[in-house]
Amino acid sequence: MSDRTTDVGIDVPLHTRIDVAGDATVLRLTGALDIASEPSFSQEVESLRRDGVRALTIDIGALDFIDSRGLSALLRTTAAWTDEGRRIEVIEPRRPQVRHVFEVSGADDGLPFVAG
After folding, report:
1. CA distance readout (Å), 81 to 10, 24, 50, 65, 69
2. Is 106 helix (H, G, I), strand (E, B) or coil?
């Protein structure tokens, strides 16, 4: 398990936690995935890819905030992992304000959401 925090400057940091059990790797996100924290998120995902992770679940169920940069990072990540033949899924956001971003942008149709 790994815990990291990135301060996004708006009093809502991005916290990441990696849980591994057998072949299952879950990247749990809480806080804000936005322009300030996207580089950290992308580096975390790239590190998992380099470590040979073949199946990843990104849990955004407890995410408090996401902006267009965070949304774009999720879309790029899922496309890249799919193109490489890796399995990826995203646990649906529970917070209405985060769900709303996906619905308004239409990105909810393009992501492999699963219930959390």
Report:
1. 30, 15, 12, 24, 18
2. coil
